[in-house]
Amino acid sequence: MTRGRGLRLLALAAVITATALVAAAGQQQSAPVSEPARTWTSPRTPDGQPDLQGIWTNYTSTPFEVPDKNDNPEFYAGDLDGTGRGTGPSAFLTDTTDRQLTKATSLVVDPPNGRVPIMPWAEERRNYKLAHIQDDWVNFTPWERCITRGVPGGIFPAGYGSGYQILQGPGYVAIVYEMIHEARIIPVDGRPHLGESFRSWNGDSRGRWDGNTLVVDITGYNDKGSVATNVATQRVRAIPQSEALHVVERYTRVDENTINYEVVIEDPKVFTAPWKVAMPLHREPDYQLFEYACHEGNRAVPNTLSGGRARDRAARGSASQ
């Protein structure tokens, strides 16, 4: 290699190196500056519990189940003759707010098809009660009778009256439900469930902390209630519950304004397999819980029954002619 050729090669290498350095510097300068990842730390109550306190709502436009062509939403809503004279509001949940809290096709996330695996006898029982709702007060759900919306049914979206206030104290978590103004007390002090002889509409709740998640185990149900009572739960409304019902809820606060709520429902006498609902609860400090005076001037049950008696009289009059 001659001396001149060697100098030319060294000069070319220097130019290439300088060009690469300039390009790299330009890329580095034009690259966006990334901010450090923001982490959210779950607050604690004075006694050390993860803090779930506040007023939360569950408004959403997501249907409870994935709709099926065989569904009869008017019937589930109590509109037996298709005239719109049912026992509740619209057949499917209608969200009149600007909230969009879920992106799923249904609140039921397991089974994957979004359908609750109901035994045929339980659907037949529901159909009978809905078809004979004008005949006897026992055919109404506990919600219509102003007894309870149930556990976990009371947390399923209803389209209105959907505020929940969570309060905490040493050894306890309390949930105040806007609809039917129920107050649910959940011990988290490690005490065992009540004995088998104790049965109630909403079962016996016992809580524990799994990290930042409140896990609530519920047993001890009676067989008088329904797993879901509001029209927004579609075909699950008025499905009976048995004393074998077992429910496990999970409340996990994932940021300042969101609790992820999950519940697994198992009743081997009513469902062919366990099923799961998942949805967010949204914190709304300005939301007001109003009194839900369920039977003070509420004439739904007596009016429905009196309508049935008028129907019976009309049928007897037609038969006598």
Describe the secondary structure blueprint for this structure.
Blueprint: H1 3-30, E1 54-57, H2 73-76, E2 108-110, H3 120-131, E3 163-169, E4 172-177, E5 183-187, E6 204-210, E7 213-219, E8 246-255, E9 258-266, E10 275-283, H4 300-320
Antiparallel strand pairs: 1-3, 1-10, 2-10, 3-4, 4-5, 6-7, 7-8, 8-9, 9-10
Structure description:
20% of the residues lie in helices and 21% in strands. It has helices at residues 3-30, 73-76, 120-131, 300-320, and strands at 54-57, 108-110, 163-169, 172-177, 183-187, 204-210, 213-219, 246-255, 258-266, 275-283. Strands 1, 2, 3, 4, 5, 6, 7, 8, 9 and 10 form a ten-stranded antiparallel sheet that branches. A hairpin with an 8-residue loop joins strand 9 (258-266) and strand 10 (275-283). The longest helix has 28 residues, at 3-30. It starts with a helix and ends with a helix.
